[in-house]
């Protein structure tokens, strides 16, 4: 397995493929329990979610290059001025496009379920497949990465994959959806059922042109102790966080209600529109072509030749 | 720099055998200079003594913030003396005085009650700039005279009216070198001499003398002897002399008050020119900017490049106008 | 190494911003900083030109520019924009001024909306650097003093003449090349 290994119990244990396969049935049962909707019901119940952050993107036809920023956030450079270097950024983008022309990196978001196959010299068959929910995306340029989480053998397993890692053989998006938060790190303190997914999950197909579904599933956390002070994080995907009075008061004191108005803070965290336009104008046509070929491939895969009857 | 000077001297030696003396006088260069200065000093003393009883005059100084009335001495006090009463800073930066709105040398005695203002090179008017350019020509003449060894005959011919637009100040000098092309180190050596003279911070003195005295002073210089009667004819038989250190030359003036007002400077080129009389004259050309004005070396390099071209003050502007007309007609045709 | 935030789309500011914010030291901490900025920003929108300490002026400049650029982007109908304006501008009348005066004024600007001048320090007095912060296009006379003599300064005369001569040469070259072309075409 490639990347940093994170386990909720802080035990770096690599499971062999056979063991996982033997557990398949068990996990798939557990996984289906908390599934909000299945492939047959693709349109999500967006309901109360009117947050600006949860802008739904029409898949497949991102007519505006600027809309690419949701789908390909790693193409935007780090906004910190000391890390900016226009030449390096340009070269990195070229390298990223070169890698994308070799393997198909699908569209996915935090909350999507992915299957990643990596080369592993020690694994039987020389490759290793891991399925899990994406709980975090970070890094930009060639260093973009994401963390997949799953529960295997009653043991939480998290793997950090680098998106443009040359050892990655294949990335499949098994279920394309978004969740209410930008990071799902709280799943580490949530019951196992919320982050348990079967390794032989079938990819779910969403019709073209529909917006990315938003899963408004709300989890309840396990009792304390927690890894982080979740009550301070303003989490939308967590139901009733109950803490004692002292912690509550401290959380109240730590509130920063002015932060959403802090225009310069926002500015320093983003890449301005003009620069984004420049960046995506450079890669838009290539990305668009890749998207079209991917959709063609998908259609070919889903097409089942009718059998001759009789 | 010394290297360059030595080269200049060797050039002088090389041509020594070929020189045919056409205007060698009875005196050597240094003796002639000494005599000239002696005459100048005597005349100055005489003029001072001729003032007689000292009369007081009211000089009204109009400064940017204040107005001062100074009681000065008639025919003795100069604008420079007035500036000394006002402030030391003003004494250093004042380039040209305006007496009753007319340009007046810093070292020219005031002749009556007047209004006085000063112009500097950082806030100049046209006459200040022209005076600066003229002073640079005068200094260039001094440099040309001192640069060569005694064997080389050097006679200052003239310097025409200053034309800043032409890009260089000039000084026409007769040398008895038949075909002299200065090398770059030689030009650099001359620039260094120029700078040396500036750094001595010499006042530019002015004296008006009678025609016969002027002829006596410039006896060694056959060009000046020819010019002096012409000049005197238009100027009531009087000649205006300017002196920097021990260098004396004829000029209409006005000049700026001190050589320290010249900042960055270059002797850019020496061209050989022909006069109507068929004399072999050399035209020394240079460029300078006032002290206190800092200039990018690239921009200054452009000025230097321009100053290297032969400066033909008299017909240069006409040619540009002709060009303009030509261009316009071409544009009209197309 | 972080990913850029993609939820907000902002216009680029036309001046160089500091990579880190200033804390604007005060006894109330971060809320006090925000209050300071609110006060100064309101004053700036009221008077259009204010003199203050350099640090605070530079800090407020970014907020003023961002607020105007957001107002131009979103307009007064946007609730979030109204929230923002109400938060930063303490007095209501200047919210109106923002949308009615500043937005039309700065709509077609391709340069920064504000200008920051370094001002002389009082002596003897507090050592902090001072500055004048102003909105561009204000009705006051310009704060910058041009050298009235700049076009008669000797080096400027020389340079302008050199430029003219260079142009003449170029024109001449062009004319010559044109003539040559005519000759060849005939």
Structural overview:
The complex is a heterotrimer of chains A (310), B (334) and C (186). Chain A contains 6 helices and 6 strands. Chain A has 310 residues and is α+β, with helices and mostly antiparallel strands. In chain A, helix 3 runs parallel beside helix 6 (273-302). The radius of gyration of chain A is 21 Å and the shape is globular. Chain A starts with a strand and ends in an 8-residue tail after the last helix. Residues 1-57 of chain A have low confidence and may be disordered. Chain B folds into 2 domains: 2-42 and 127-313, 2-Layer Sandwich (Threonyl-tRNA Synthetase, Chain A, domain 2), CATH 3.30.980.10; 56-120, Ubiquitin-like (UB roll) (Roll), CATH 3.10.20.30. A 5-stranded mixed β-sheet of chain B has the order 2-1-5-3-4. Chain B has a 4-stranded antiparallel β-sheet with strand order 6-7-12-11, sandwiched between helices. A 3-stranded antiparallel β-sheet of chain B has the order 8-9-10, with helices on both faces. In chain B, helix 1 crosses helix 6 (184-199). Chain C contains 5 helices and 3 strands; from the N terminus they run αβαααββα. Chain C has helices at residues 30-47, 54-74, 79-88, 92-106, 154-185, and strands at residues 49-53, 114-119, 130-135. Chain A binds chain C through residues 52-53, 55, 66, 69-70, 73-74, 76-83, 137-140, 143-144, 256, 258, 261-276, and chain C through 1-13, 17, 19, 21, 30-31, 34, 62-63, 66-67, 70, 80, 83-84, 87-88.
**Residue-averaged pLDDT of chain A, rounded?**
82
Estimate what percentage of residues of chain C fall within beta strands: 5-15%
Question: Given the helix and strand composition of chain A, which structural class is it?
Answer: alpha+beta
Output the CATH class name of chain A: Mainly Beta
SSE order of chain A in H/E notation? Answer: EHHHEEEEEHHH
- Domains of chain A (count): 1
User: Helix- and strand-based class of chain C?
Assistant: mainly alpha
The radius of gyration over CA of chain A amounts to 21 Å
End-to-end gap of chain A = 49 Å
**Strand order across the largest sheet of chain A:** 1-5-4-3-2-6
Total domains of chain C:
2
As a percent range, the share of strand residues of chain A is 5-15%
CATH topology category name of the largest domain in chain C = 50s Ribosomal Protein L17, Chain: A
> How many strands in all of chain A?
6
User: For the largest beta sheet of chain C, what order do the strands appear in spatially?
Assistant: 1-3-2
- Classify the helix fraction of chain A into a percent range: 25-40%
CA-based shape of chain C: extended
Main β-sheet of chain A: number of strands, strand sense, barrel status? 6 strands, antiparallel
CATH superfamily (homologous) name of the largest domain in chain C: Ribosomal protein L17
User: Which blocks of ≥5 consecutive residues of chain A have pLDDT under 50?
Assistant: 1-57
Protein name (chain A): Large ribosomal subunit protein bL19m
GO cellular component, one term (chain A): mitochondrial large ribosomal subunit
GO molecular function (chain A): structural constituent of ribosome
InterPro entries (chain A): Ribosomal_bL19, Ribosomal_bL19_sf, Translation_prot_SH3-like_sf
